[in-house]
């Protein structure tokens, strides 16, 4: 059964829907796939370079390129549906990454 | 938070307005000792020659120049103290409480609760763009609303602006109000003199600028006030009475105290006596950091006049939460972002709904720390995506 290691994170805003995904690979291994999901930028000049992604359905995700935690924030109104779709896509991406490993 | 190697991370700590770190080394030592040794008696048996609670109380009284240490009750934190003061205040139905839009939820939520119960009416006075109460406006509100109780923070936890507590207190008391001062952000970093200023109640915490452990705080109560306790229970003595004892501080100290943490706070207070803080230097260091952040491109909430070492800012094009995440993940810089538990102040200081980034320094913050912070802000703002 496909499963993600995910934890909800809370902040000042009661309706914030932010989750941390602990991935089995580094974030940078998924860059090519993320680039097809929306607007992806990589901030290379930071001490630990990061990726920032805004998907076409308004999900915002970020993480250290060489890290394995991806933090995603979902639009508050439709967050359950958006999260479910995002997780399916993420699982597909992880499977592809695993398959394509040299 | 994650890192790619096992080397210890050198954090840059800019969250002293939340809780101070590091503490003087004697604090941990005192807590350890208090746990390892026989507990103090706390009116419940045990060695009579040991009472860290009383030692702490005496040092606090000395620090705030209060004549009688018994007027300081000790408890879990400032929130506990504010609830004691607000919840135990002898309100009559329909009384007005005057407070400010700069207050922390530890003030706001007890007031909301009593308002929703229909007991009080809460009137909010706006603050100026730097988070400070305007004295003229305060006078007008006091005159217009004639509050039974006036509650305000000595220093804003969002901007660091310090209020003229003595004058605000005098104005409110001249019109018949009692005054509750929230000194959570001021005691330990600037002079706080509740007795000299005529304050009726003053809540404080031990773990911020007093440099003590978390889980310590208290409520100063003026000598002419007979507080009505919210929390009631065992006091170790006078156990044959149904009511809480009349005498302070026992009247507000139900239950076994957090003795080892107060031993730590006592150690911190003694240490601070031996190592007095250079108030002017802290003001100068804060202003310098504020200037440097502005020069780096941050939109800093400008504070003129007396302030605590707290700076709030936003970065153009960035949400505060993202800045905080990146400072931590990419630079090991610890700060605070968002509403800072003071949600109503944002409209006064012109901050966006997502709040601000707040950095707060202490006497232990180094030049290297501030250089790292400023460089990180520059990189965040000037990076080519």
Could you walk me through the main structural features you see in this protein, from its secondary elements to its overall organization?
- The complex is a heterodimer of chains A (about 100) and B (about 375).
- Chain A has two helices and six strands.
- By secondary structure, chain A is α+β, with helices and mostly antiparallel strands.
- Chain A has a six-stranded antiparallel sheet with strand order 1-2-6-5-4-3.
- The two termini of chain A are about 25 Å apart.
- Chain B folds into two domains: about 10-25 and about 275-380, Alpha-Beta Complex (Aspartate Aminotransferase, domain 1); about 25-275, 3-Layer(aba) Sandwich (Aspartate Aminotransferase, domain 2), CATH 3.40.640.10.
- Chain B has a seven-stranded mixed sheet with strand order 2-8-7-6-5-3-4, sandwiched between helices. A four-stranded antiparallel sheet of chain B has the order 9-10-13-12, with helices on one face. Chain B has a two-stranded parallel sheet with strand order 1-11.
- Chain B is globular, with a radius of gyration of 21 Å.
- Chains A and B meet through strand 3 and strand 5 of A and helix 10 and helix 12 of B.
